[in-house]
Design brief:
Blueprint (H helix, E strand, L loop, with lengths): L5 E4 L6 E4 L22 E3 L1 H10 L4 E6 L4 H17 L4 E6 L4 H6 L7 E6 L2 E7 L4 H9 L3
Parallel strand pairs: 3-5, 4-5
Antiparallel strand pairs: 1-2, 4-6, 6-7
Helix pairs in contact: 2-4
This protein binds zinc ion.
Length: 144
């Protein structure tokens, strides 16, 4: 575990903040003063996805899902639980592949749900199929 400050993107205004390890839970954005990092999944869209993936020094686990997919709906609360246990080691985020088809195509998403773990702007692991919170957490911890 590094003790260096980590860059993290504000989900509210997009500003890149430098956060001291251990201060994630109370850190407020220097620009908009909202909380920079919370323990629930962040809903991304095409315009915010790239910025979070590229600029964040915190690993980001993205749930590529569709609102009409049964297994995705079942996994939703499990993913939210995993966001709590993985906080603040990893940020969890979701993107609706039916609305953001360009992003889904860029990552070759053929089945939902698919989880992709990103670090420093690069994909480091992916897994398709619904998982429960415990499995999401265990799988993620293998890689970060
Ligand atoms: Zn902000």
């Amino acid at each position: 575990m590094t003790t260096d400050n980590r860059l993290i993107v504000c989900p509210h205004c997009g500003a890149v903040n430098r956060i001291h390890p251990g201060r994630e839970a109370e850190a407020a954005c220097g620009k908009c003063h909202a909380k920079v990092f919370e323990d629930h999944p962040l809903e991304l869209v095409g315009s915010t996805f790239d910025r979070h993936i590229a600029k964040s020094e915190v690993p980001i686990l993205v749930d590529f899902y569709s609102p009409t997919c049964g297994p995705c709906l079942m996994m939703g609360p499990q993913f939210a639980d995993a966001a709590k246990t993985l906080f603040p080691r990893v940020r969890l985020a979701k993107i609706d592949t039916s609305a953001e088809q360009a992003v889904a195509a860029r990552y070759g998403i053929r089945a939902v749900p698919t989880l992709i773990l990103f670090r420093d702007g690069r994909e480091i692991a992916r897994q398709s199929g619904a998982m429960n919170a415990r499995d999401i957490e265990a799988w993620t911890r293998q890689h970060v």
